[in-house]
Write a structure and sequence with these properties.
The structure holds two protein chains of two kinds. Chain A has eight helices and ten strands. Chain A is globular. Chain A has helices at about 55-65, 105-110, 110-115, 120-130, 150-160, 180-195, 205-210, 245-265, and strands at about 15-25, 30-40, 45-50, 70-75, 80, 90, 165-170, 200-205, 215-220, 225-230. Helices cover about 35% and strands about 25% of the residues of chain A. Chain A starts with 12 loop residues before the first strand and ends with a helix. In chain A, strands 6-7-8-3-9-10 form a six-stranded mixed sheet, with helices on both faces. In chain A, strands 2-1-4-5 form a four-stranded antiparallel sheet, covered by helices on one side. By secondary structure, chain B is mainly α. Chain B is globular. In chain B, about 80% of the residues lie in helices and about 0% in strands. Classes of the chains: A alpha/beta, B mainly alpha. The interface of A and B includes residues 84, 86, 114, 142 and 144 of A.
């Protein structure tokens, strides 16, 4: 077991998760979803959590998004304890969750409406982001007029429109085909390199994790625990072909091994 | 509980664009089949010598309709009945929608009010119509009240169903943006409920026509219902059928108008989006 990165300055942590546990109470007794999760994410860092289905990845995200409260431990975004949903966090879910009665631009501006931000400047920012995401010219289209990949890109733009410090992504490309998925990962890398947001990414694809991340945390199922954290210092921008390089191939193999161990345990 | 008598939102019929001849053919199709049907009935009645006080011929109904319209009797009666329908429908549906919103937002209200609403709906409107006449008189207001009561239930039930049928992902989306419950209602629940509400209004407008006629049967000075009763007493079946045609056409037209509004407002309904 590799302990999560040591001595980093507290103030530079965009996200702190320390000794967090989560137990659900159900009619048939209590279910321990998360146990002793500790993971600190530095400002501007791209961290991915990999784990099998049902390992509590999504529960962890709900805690970070403030949609649920931890049973034990402490979570903080930008040094402030999480007590509920926060404006400093943007979220991308598994499905794009675009509202069909709003145009793409209106969908992207939803956070601005909900947070009552200045509409003209938000619109300007939304248009720039849509342009960057390759959705220029689609502002006035409705979601059903766009392909699945484009809908996902719109969802990412929506998460960025209020300029959050931390971006949470819950298997955002899980519903896409393999080719679109790699393209989307490539675009996400580009957007991330431009914006340098702190990203917490959840996936069960090792190649996606290695391609995108600075650090990769491996989770085990039932109860969800972090069993290992790997650093990925490979230079950027990366390509999916880079994953075949000896270092990244070895890293992928190590992650796979630790994932297999975690699942077997 | 809330899903009793829920009318599912209808997927809007997508007409193939740019095919005017197709649309024209469909109208022609309907007119032609109607003409054939009327001809068969006319022939049957004449052929078997059915007396006019049992079943009038379509041609005599047409004549009665024409005369009634020309001498202004039908139109003034229709104006009264239509006013009752439209005013009652507007009041009843608005109350239904507002009450539905309130009941979804305030669970206590739901628990307390719902049994009464169901109870009220269970009582046939014909049974309370005499009471309305006693309370509000023979004028237009008693009919408006009956129509409003009739329309309340479908719009209420559909509003509740529509507001509740919200995807949990959409709720999480608004919640994660620090959205309030009012914002959830405004940005997600109400638009989401719109196809349901429109379906409720579609049911409501048809029931409104029935409610108005029932009210007029029980007690009224003028209106299509009064015309039907008068024709009935005089065994003037042609006029009676003419009044029935008039009321049926009114129902169809009102329903069509609502369906048009529905396709305009809920253009996105039934389109695949996640």
């Amino acid at each position: 077991m590799t302990p999560a990165s040591p001595a980093r300055l507290k103030s530079s942590h965009a996200l702190e998760v320390s000794a967090v546990g989560l137990t659900y109470r159900t009619s048939s007794g209590s279910v321990e979803a998360l146990r002793d999760i500790t993971l600190d994410v530095a400002e501007g860092e791209f961290v991915t959590v990999v784990g099998p289905s049902g390992c509590g990845k999504s529960s962890l995200l709900k805690l970070i998004l403030g949609l649920e409260r931890a049973t034990r431990g402490r979570l903080a975004v930008g040094g402030r304890e999480i007590a509920g949903p926060s404006r400093g966090v943007g979220a991308v879910f598994q499905a794009p969750v675009l509202l069909p009665w709003r145009t793409i631009e209106e969908n992207v501006l939803l956070p601005a409406d909900v947070m009552k931000l200045d509409r003209p400047s938000a619109t300007e920012r939304a248009r720039a982001l849509l342009q960057m995401a390759g959705l220029g010219g689609f502002e006035q289209k409705y979601p059903y007029e766009l392909s699945g990949g484009m809908q996902h890109r719109a969802a990412i733009v929506r998460a960025l429109v209020h300029d959050p410090k931390l971006l949470i992504m819950d298997e955002p490309f899980a519903a896409l085909d393999a080719i679109t998925r790699e393209q989307m990962a490539g675009e996400l890398q580009r957007v991330w390199m431009d914006s340098r947001k702190t990203v917490m990414f959840i996936t069960h694809s090792i190649s996606e994790a290695v391609f995108l991340s600075d650090r990769i945390a491996v989770m085990s199922p039932r109860p969800g625990r972090i069993v290992a954290v790997f650093d990925n210092p490979a230079p950027r921008p990366r390509t999916f072909a880079d994953l075949l390089s000896p270092e990244l191939a070895r890293l992928s193999a190590e992650i796979r091994q630790s994932l297999d161990l975690a699942c077997a345990a | 509980m809330a899903d009793i008598a829920t009318t599912k939102p209808q997927a809007s019929e997508a007409a193939p664009p740019g095919r005017v001849s197709g649309a024209a053919w469909r109208i022609l199709e309907r007119l032609l089949s109607l003409a054939i049907l009327l001809l068969v009935i006319e022939g049957g009645i004449r052929g078997f010598d059915v007396p006019a006080y049992v079943f009038p011929t379509p041609s005599s109904i047409a004549v009665a309709l024409y005369e009634g319209v020309v001498n202004g009797n039908y139109l003034s009666a229709l104006a009264v009945t239509l006013t009752e329908i439209l005013v009652g429908f507007t009041i009843g549906s608005t109350c239904g929608i507002l009450l539905g919103i309130a009941m979804v937002q305030v669970p206590v209200l739901d628990r307390i009010v719902y049994p009464y609403v169901v109870g009220l709906q269970t009582v046939p409107k014909v049974a309370i119509a005499p009471l309305m006449i006693v309370w509000f008189g023979f004028g237009i207001s008693s009919k408006i009240f009956i129509v409003a009561l009739t329309c309340l239930f479908p719009s209420l039930i559909n509003t509740i169903a529509g507001l509740r049928a919200v995807d949990s992902d959409r709720i999480a989306l608004i919640t994660a943006m620090c959205g309030t419950r009012t914002q959830l209602l405004r940005y997600v629940q109400l638009p989401n409920a719109l196809p349901y509400i429109m379906a409720g209004l579609n049911t409501g407008i048809v029931l409104a026509v029935i409610g108005a006629i029932v009210g007029e049967f029980v007690g009224a000075k003028t209106g299509i219902g009064v015309l039907i009763l008068q024709a009935n007493f005089g065994l003037d079946l042609a006029s009676m059928f003419a009044a029935l045609v008039l009321i049926a056409v009114t129902g169809v037209v009102l329903n069509l108008v609502l369906r048009l509004i529905e396709t305009k407002l809920c253009f996105w309904s039934g389109k695949a989006t996640k």
